[in-house]
Amino acid sequence: MRTSIATVSLSGSLTEKLTAAARAGFDGVEIFENDLLACPLTPEEIRARCADLGLTVDLYQPLRDVEAVPADVFARNLRRARHKFELMRRLGADTVLVCSSVDPCAVDDDALAAEQLADLADLARDSGVRVAYEALAWGRHVSTYDHAWRIVEAAGHPALGTCLDSFHILSRGSDPKGIEDIPGEKIFFLQLADAPLLAMDVLQWSRHHRCFPGQGGFDVAGLVRHVLRTGYDGPLSLEVFNDVLRQAEAGPTAVDARRSLLVLQEAVGAAEPPPAVVPTGFAFAELVTPDAAPLAGLLDALGFARTARHRGKPVDLWQQGEARILVNTAAAARRDGTRLAAVGLESPDPAGAARRAEAMLAPVLPRRRAPGDAPLDAVAAPDGTELFFCSTRPGGWRSDFEDVPHAPAAPSVRRVDHVALTQPWHHFDEAVLFHRGVLGLRAEDSVDLADPYGLLRSRAVSNADGGVRIALTVGAAPTDDTAHAQHVALATDDVVAAARRFRDAGGRLLPIPANYYDDLAARYEFADGELETYRELGILYDRDAHGVLRHCYTRTVGRVFFELLQRDGGHRGYGARNAPVRLAAQHAAGTP
């Protein structure tokens, strides 16, 4: 299906928005009137610019407060419309969006609304324009799509149809099944937006919190299925009002928007991209650092052994059980200090995963390979983390490393349980959709975490069996971009033994305030000495409906720290209840 995007969904000037939409692969645009008014180009020049970019102008919007008004007001409205229709002719747009009136002088009279909309459609037809009538969720008298359709049907004019907007329909809790009663040829346009499920005034909700399909809590795919059953053959168009997107760079936002429609089309059966290849586990986590010594000491205390060295690069492999950490000291990779730079994802079909990623507009990263290096495809996540699709089977990425002598050790860590990635403040929703659409992971519920200096949002994505878990976290303001460290959580069967081993080897555990353990004693009953052990080692404790979580943290090196984590009984969480205590302790230690 053709895809379109409203210019209000992107930041910047109109020409910047058009360029971003075209580069992202959209077929057309809705031109928002404010963008046109602020543009120094003439309508003819904008039309030519769109044509040069391969874009059609699918909609001009909005024409407000037209119908069900006194005769003198309606006469002025027709005069206004006549000017807009001439403008549309110059612009090359043939459909105008008319929103249901919020004018205080509008009356609750469907017959009058139908009559005046028919008159408007007469004028539009003479100018080669169609009128798409939309019910605003906060319309004065018309606020539901079925009400708007009844008025359009009563008017009976060939140049008058309806516009369906997923936000206006789903925010009011309307049943979208009734859309199937509308003839497809009378649905002149379809606008799509998602939104988080919030309890607030619908106008404020709409103006500030819309997001792209798949990033919120609405069943946008279900609504689109109903629309397609009518025979609708127009574009899928995005109209998103969002404070964050208004401040984000237009290019990446447009790509995110286009990806959301690719995922949506796949969900409704309107497109068949390469299927998602869901990763089964973590092959490795790669840390880059200007100084390997602190990391080496930390990994050694955790029970890792340096087992191999890359044949042609300054990269060491540290391993314990199935947990593998790469330490990269290459000059080009360590400009920003110690950080988590890449994640290797164990894939049953690395080549298929790469095809899927490219089809979903993930930026494919160029990789310099020496002769004999294993082929490894990588893409960049929204936060810049490199994601490698790889296999640890013979002949895979492990063959690039030569074993080095090392002392055998009894591992206390089994594997990587999850990684936590801090997102740029304006890429949080994009990151969730990216990991869903590109990797086929499922998104868990979003949670708010109380940091001593602000509120953080966190949302995890995972595969079905929990073999891959990625926690995505973002601060509440742009200044939070680099304030919080990333971490690698290591699964162990005995966190007490693992923590003691780490401490006895010279490792420094994050100290937790005594007040936390006093509260634990009030909330739970423990065996004799159990709580004292947790207090001694800084072990945090949580329960959910499935089991128990015990976990503790190392001090931070650069922007990276490790978590030792024991899940019992199938505990599914990440310790969100304990996050405020952990964050405060890290601030106190000087390592947020």
From TrEMBL:
HAMAP family linked to this entry: DSD (MF_02238)
All copies of domain VOC, residue ranges: 281-392, 415-555
Molecular function terms, GO-annotated: isomerase activity
Record field: catalytic activity: 3-dehydroshikimate = 3,4-dihydroxybenzoate + H2O
Family: Belongs to the bacterial two-domain DSD family.
InterPro entries, per the entry: DSD, Glyas_Bleomycin-R_OHBP_Dase, Glyas_Fos-R_dOase_dom, IolE/XylAMocC-like, VOC_core, Xyl_isomerase-like_sf, Xyl_isomerase-like_TIM-brl
Purpose: Catalyzes the conversion of 3-dehydroshikimate to protocatechuate (3,4-dihydroxybenzoate), a common intermediate of quinate and shikimate degradation pathways.
Binding site for Mg(2+): 418, 487, 563
E.C. numbers: 4.2.1.118
Keywords assigned by UniProt, alphabetized: Isomerase, Lyase, Metal-binding
Record-listed a divalent metal cation binding positions: 134, 165, 191, 239
PROSITE patterns: VOC
Species this chain originates from: Streptomyces prasinosporus
Pfam families per UniProt: AP_endonuc_2, Glyoxalase, Glyoxalase_5
Pathway where this protein functions: Aromatic compound metabolism; 3,4-dihydroxybenzoate biosynthesis
Protein name: 3-dehydroshikimate dehydratase
Cited PANTHER family: HYDROXYPYRUVATE ISOMERASE (PTHR12110), XYLOSE ISOMERASE-LIKE TIM BARREL DOMAIN-CONTAINING PROTEIN (PTHR12110:SF21)
